[in-house]
């Protein structure tokens, strides 16, 4: 495990300064994981209910600020048919230290906590947290505890007409990846940390997979510029434009400056199996996936094996 990104807003500068001194623990790889990715629901097709991508105020990549928690980047749009949600990392509502990444014993703000959503007129509410759900049911699987870092923020109905599910710059998602991220697979992400001072050209990132971890509940990736505090929770797409992960950690060992992702198919399956928000589906983007050319990480980075 590693440094948790979505630190409380007041601690963001300190966290950025100390990123380089936090050592990630070695991760055991049990044979099974708790949530079956095959149980992850197929994406909800996009429809006329969504605002045009060019004018939508709320979309993947907008910032979220959780009361009592921290500032993060949202990932994908979800629906249960009637309600609309935007995803973030569970640790965005965390109240402990930045190094607390085990969701089975880390403190969090409760469900119902207000979440400020960039572009929304009304604050959303924390509707699901993998951390709170795991703690309530007494989860003991070490991989699930370490990598299940996912939350849903319900968007107020007053703002639902201003939502588009497309990932900026890249388009998509085209669906949900249930196959994992083999070593070397290209990935694409859109972060929106305040530390980038509003320089939009720094938000889109391309990278490569360093392989799956945690029995498939997590993935390690390198991007040309690693995720920083405030990027927590941001969306990752695979080379087919499928939603594959949620940015969770920055690691120093065993893969220096790699980022850890929570697998979205397993996290969503867990939410549907054990959460209380009903049957939730990821919404496909209205814009086609276009893996535009971006710098890749430098050659020679440490890889497993």
Automatic annotation (TrEMBL):
Question: Could you list the residue ranges that cross the membrane?
Answer: none
Hydrolase as UniProt keyword: yes
A Gene Ontology biological process in which this protein takes part is: proteolysis
Instruction: From the UniProt entry, list the residue stretches annotated as the region Disordered.
Output: 34-54
Going by the UniProt record, its keywords in alphabetical order are: Hydrolase, Protease, Signal
Say if the entry is tagged with keyword Metal-binding.
Answer: no
SUPFAM superfamilies, per the entry: Trypsin-like serine proteases
GO MF, any single term = peptidase activity
Cleavable signal peptide: 1-35
What the entry lists under Gene3D superfamilies is as follows:
Trypsin-like serine proteases
* Name recorded for this polypeptide: Serine protease
Q: What is the originating organism of this protein?
A: Pseudonocardia hispaniensis
Ranked from the top, the taxonomy reads: Bacteria, Bacillati, Actinomycetota, Actinomycetes, Pseudonocardiales
């Amino acid at each position: 495990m590693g440094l948790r990104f979505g630190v409380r807003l007041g601690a963001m500068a300190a966290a950025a300064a100390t990123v380089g001194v936090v050592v990630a623990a070695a991760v055991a790889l049990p044979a099974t994981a708790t949530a079956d990715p095959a149980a992850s629901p197929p994406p909800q097709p996009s429809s006329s209910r969504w605002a045009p991508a060019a004018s939508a105020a709320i979309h993947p990549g907008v910032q979220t600020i959780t009361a009592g928690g921290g500032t993060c980047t949202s990932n994908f749009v979800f629906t249960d048919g009637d309600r609309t949600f935007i995803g973030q990392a569970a640790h965005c509502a965390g109240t402990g230290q930045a190094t607390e990444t085990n969701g089975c014993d880390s403190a969090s703000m409760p469900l119902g906590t207000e979440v400020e959503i960039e572009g929304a007129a009304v604050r959303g509410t924390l509707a699901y947290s993998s951390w709170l759900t795991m703690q309530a049911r007494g989860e003991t699987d070490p991989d699930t505890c370490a990598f299940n870092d996912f939350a849903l923020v319900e968007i107020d109905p007053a703002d639902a007409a201003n939502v588009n599910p497309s990932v900026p710059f890249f388009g998509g998602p085209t669906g949900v990846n249930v196959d994992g991220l083999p070593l070397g697979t290209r990935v694409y992400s859109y972060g929106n940390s305040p530390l980038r001072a509003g320089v939009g050209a720094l938000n889109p990132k391309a990278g490569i997979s360093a392989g799956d971890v945690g029995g498939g509940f997590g993935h390690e990736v390198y991007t040309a510029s690693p995720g920083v505090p405030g990027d927590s929770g941001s969306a990752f797409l695979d080379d087919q434009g499928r939603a594959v992960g949620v940015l969770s950690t920055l690691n120093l060992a065993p893969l220096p400056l790699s980022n850890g992702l929570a697998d979205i198919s397993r996290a969503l399956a867990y939410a549907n199996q054990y959460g209380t928000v009903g049957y939730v589906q990821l919404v496909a983007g209205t814009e086609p996936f276009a893996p535009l050319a971006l710098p890749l990480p430098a050659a020679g980075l440490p890889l497993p094996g």
